[in-house]
Each structure stands twice: as C-alpha cells, then as structure tokens.
Specification:
alpha/beta; 7-stranded mixed sheet; binds pyridoxal-5'-phosphate; 5-stranded mixed sheet; Aspartate Aminotransferase, domain 1; Aspartate Aminotransferase, domain 2; 2 domains; 16 helices
C-alpha cells in the first residue's frame, strides 16, 4: 500500500478482504471475543500474542479504519478515539505525567486550550503557550528541563494561523521531545505533518474526515520515528518496566514503530475507555473514501468565498491563507501548496449587530456549532461560544465582536456567494 497514491489509499488502505469476505469493512458489533482456553486469552493480556478480547481496548472495525488513516498520514500505527478531545488528551498524556510540562502554540482550538490550560494543570502538568509566529529564540526559551511534548495545529481552528511545522519540529527534537500536530483542518490530503518532522499526528475525525456531520470521533497516528530509548531519561514510562503490564518495557518489546500506540491503548484506553464505537468507525470510513474528492472542493469554495468577501465594502477584513496578502499566505504556499481548507473567517464593519443580522439572513448556510462539514455552516463566536466576554475581551482574544467563522461546504460556490451577497445586503 505504501507506494500507492493518496487517492487510492483513501479507498483501499487498511482493509484487504480475503476470498469471499465482505467488500466493505464489517462492523464488528460485539463487546467481547470468544476463546477456547484461558491460556490463549492470558497471552493476550500479557501482550504475548495480539488479538481482540474486549472492545473498550480494541475492535477490528476501528483497527481497519485506524490503519487507513495511518497510511494516509504516512505513519506506522494509529488508534481511534471517541472524540478529537480524547485524541489530543491521550496523545499528550501518553507523554506526560504529573510534574511535567508542555510547550503549545497559543492559537489552538478552544477545547484543546482549555484541556491543557485548565484540566491538565489539575493533573499537575504545566504549559507554556507560544505564538505560532514566535522566533526560534522565543520558542527555545519556552522549554524547561521537564518539558515532554510540543503541540500545535497545522491550521488553527478558528484563528486560521498556519504553523511553521519544521521550526516547531526542530525545537522539539533539539530538546529531545516529540512534536504532536493536530492536523484536523488540513487533513492528510493537503498536508502530512510527518513529512515535515512531526512525531505524532491527531485529528478530530468529526470534521473533514467524517465530513458529513454524522459521527464524533478522533484519531492518533504515530510516525514511528521518535527514538524513546535514546531519550530514556525523559521517558521512563516507555523505557522501564510497566508494573501494571507484568513488567513490559514498551520501547524494548515493541520498538519505535509500535511503542507509542501500544502504550496508549493498554494504559490510557484501558483506564479511561474513550473508544470510538465501531458503528462510528464505519461511518468515518465512508467519509474517508471520498476525502480526496471533497477536500479540493471545500478549498475551491473557500477560495471563491474569501475572494468575494475581500472585495466587499461592508467587510472589514478576511482571514484565509489562500489570499495573497494574508499573513499566512507565504507559509501556506510551503505547507499547503494544494489548498488549505474550506473555513474562512471575516469581520464585518458593523460589528456584532451586523454579524448577527448577516447570519440570520442566510438561507443556504446554517448557524451551527460545527465546522468542516459538507453543508456550509457559520458561527459568530461573540454571540455564541464566546458570549460571556465583553467587546474589549473579545478583541484581546483575537475574536472581535463582528467576526464570523464561515465553513464552506461542497455546495455550488455560486449559490454560497449569492447567499452571502443577499445577506450582506440586509445590513444597513
Ligand atoms: C473540533 C476540534 C477538536 C475537538 O474535536 P471533537 O471531535 O469535537 O472532540 C480538536 N481540534 C480541532 C482542531 C478541532 O477543530
């Protein structure tokens, strides 16, 4: 499979049926799996043999889909989680324990920001946030002796900043720690962070990968490149025996290719249980089969809508890295040469009232707490997700009151623009 193009992998990677077996991946709707001897099952528990025994840890349907996503990202192993939040939490908590520290880009998704800034702090894990536009010296200064991971998003939701992945990878590796990249908005169709030095890639599969607003989910992919034993002082959980698993040393027993996902499965999935339902994995796979067809269309529509908005007199500013003159245009040319995503954000001159009037006047686009879906949707953070903030606080958070996040679906661009045109005309 590794020599095939990404379009073919979207369709065929991860599951190869044998003679007379189902063409589509089977949904293994079973909590448990049967064995004829206790010894056989005991070997699974000891990780002496591989196989399924309980769906809280692993399920064949999930594994077919995880293997497909690993192939798409150019990784060696992957696991599905119940949500994008669970994926980012597991990816980081598999690297960090109480007393450790993370370096993260400051413009990441609000849910992940809160996870790291509030919830993981309660677990004794500290964070230093850096601008995605920081200098090498500023990035270097963020590291501490107890830093165990660096985190950022290829294209940030909703800030739409583009990360210099090579810069962040260089810094992470100079300090002997892995780089974790949330690649939700770019998808492997437009960017494969592992090719730029990332060690772990995560997704909220809820977004473009599913793409139809059907199932919440997440995924973690391991590049298999991080050398745990070479950094044994920083990662004792990988390099010394795990007493909760009969003294197994993950990096020795499974090597660089399988240590991360195996440890994440047998420790975190076992204990936290945030597994994706096999039904949802099946739906996710249907989305993946058309990902390479849908993503270019999302990008075409995003580009057309961004260009229209940028020329409109009632629009104050547009954020879209496909627009020449956008702050991230140059960086996007390097990391996202085929396009970025369908999400555009823009600020109306009339502020919050204009944004609300505009959105209420839309007929094709719908108001939703969602992005990256086949159906166009939009949100005014000031009147919804960021409702508790004053206009001054909104400005400071980089989410001005008149900002609209507009997620272009795969409808006709002409219909989207006509809808925007008539809604803008409703504003005084
Ligand atoms: C939505 C999102 C998440 C959280 O994913 P859920 O599936 O909603 O839990 C994480 N990261 C990014 C970039 C997202 O857009």
């Amino acid at each position: 499979m590794s020599n095939l193009r990404i379009e073919t992998k979207c369709i065929q990677a991860g599951y190869t049926p044998g003679n007379g077996e189902p063409r589509q991946i089977p949904i293994v709707q079973s909590t448990t799996f049967k064995y004829t001897s206790s010894e056989d099952m005991g070997k699974l528990f000891d990780l002496e043999a591989s196989g399924y025994f309980y769906t809280r840890l692993q399920n064949p349907t999930n594994d077919y889909v995880a293997a497909k996503i690993a192939a798409l990202e150019g990784g060696v192993a992957a696991m599905l989680t119940s949500s994008g939040q669970a994926a980012n939490f597991f990816a980081l908590f598999n690297l960090c324990s109480c007393g450790d520290h993370i370096v993260a880009s400051s413009t990441i998704y609000g849910g992940t920001f809160n996870l790291i800034e509030v919830t993981m702090k309660k677990m004794g894990i500290d964070v230093t946030f850096v601008s995605p536009d920081c200098t090498d010296a500023e990035l270097d200064a963020a590291f501490k002796p107890n830093t165990k991971a660096v985190f950022g998003e290829t294209i940030a939701n909703p800030a739409l900043t583009v990360l210099d992945i090579e810069q962040f990878a260089r810094a992470a590796h100079a300090h002997g720690v892995p780089l974790v990249i949330d690649n939700t908005f770019a998808t492997p169709i437009n960017c494969r962070p592992i090719e730029w030095g990332a060690d772990i890639v995560t997704h909220s599969t809820t977004k473009y990968m599913d793409g139809h607003g059907a199932a919440v989910g997440g995924v973690i992919v391991d590049a298999g490149k991080f050398d745990w034993l070479a950094h044994a002082d920083k990662f004792p959980e990988f390099c010394t025996p795990d007493e909760s698993y009969h003294g197994i040393t993950y990096a020795e027993k499974f090597g660089n290719a399988a240590a991360f996902i195996t440890k994440c499965t047998v420790q975190l999935m076992r204990d936290f249980g945030a597994i994706q339902a096999p039904q949802n994995a099946y739906l996710l796979n249907l989305g993946l089969e058309s990902l390479h067809v849908r993503i270019p269309r999302h990008c075409e529509n995003g580009q057309a809508v961004a260009e229209y908005l940028a020329s409109h007199p009632k629009v104050k500013s547009v954020n879209y890295c496909g627009l020449p003159g956008d702050k991230y245009y140059e960086r996007a040319q390097k990391y996202l040469p085929n396009g970025s995503c369908g999400v555009v954000s823009f600020e109306l001159k009339g502020g919050r009232d204009a944004a609300v009037k505009f959105m209420d006047s839309l007929k094709v686009a719908a108001i939703e707490t969602h992005v990256a879906d086949a159906r166009t949707c939009c949100l005014n953070p000031a009147s919804t997700t960021h409702r508790q903030l004053t206009d001054e606080q909104l400005e400071a958070a980089g989410v001005p009151a008149g900002l609209v996040r507009f997620s272009c679906g795969i409808e006709s661009a002409a219909d989207l623009i006509a809808d925007i045109e008539q809604a803008l005309a409703q504003i005084n």
